[in-house]
Amino acid sequence: MAEMSDTIRCTAERVGFLVNGNQVELEIGSQPHQVATSHTLAHTLRETLGLTGTKITCDNGACGSCTVLMDGTAILSCMTLTVECQGKSIVTIEGLADPKSGRLDPLQQSFIDHTAFQCGFCTPGMILSARALLDATPSPTEEEVKEALSGNFCRCISHYQVVRAVMAVAEGGE
């Protein structure tokens, strides 16, 4: 993983962090090309950086669709201000695939293999929540998977396929 440069510091004028391994430095302000202090990370990812895999659904932290990883922990990006991300490493769904080969993360592939999505809107948040769990607990129980995904809601499908997809990766059945 790329290291955060010591030269990028959060000041009254700028905020710097990593997104999918790439350094980002944004000017803080109220002009159209700037990031307002009130902008959420979800807004900045989608509207400023063009990373539209992060979804905004409820916009109040209740659905999990905006989940990204911050320093390896699943967070709700609609509830996190961009200015709070100074010096952090953010991973979005776009950052999970291998950058050299383009190979999908095993979780992404398992979601495909187990038909663990329908419309796909909530899928990025579910995958990132599951990735945080598997990174912290490589062999979780089914109950631990359910608990890790408890903040992610889908209106299209049953969560059974999602749990099966995560368990397949945990059990080495990528």
TrEMBL record:
Annotated ranges, domain 2Fe-2S ferredoxin-type: 13-96
Name of the molecule in the record: Carbon-monoxide dehydrogenase small subunit
GO MF terms, alphabetically ordered: 2 iron, 2 sulfur cluster binding; metal ion binding; oxidoreductase activity
Entry annotated with the keyword Iron-sulfur: yes
PROSITE patterns, per the entry: 2FE2S_FER_1 (PS00197), 2FE2S_FER_2 (PS51085)
UniProt keyword terms in alphabetical order: 2Fe-2S, Iron, Iron-sulfur, Metal-binding, Oxidoreductase
Presence of the UniProt keyword Nucleotide-binding in the record: no
Organism expressing this protein natively: Geobacter argillaceus
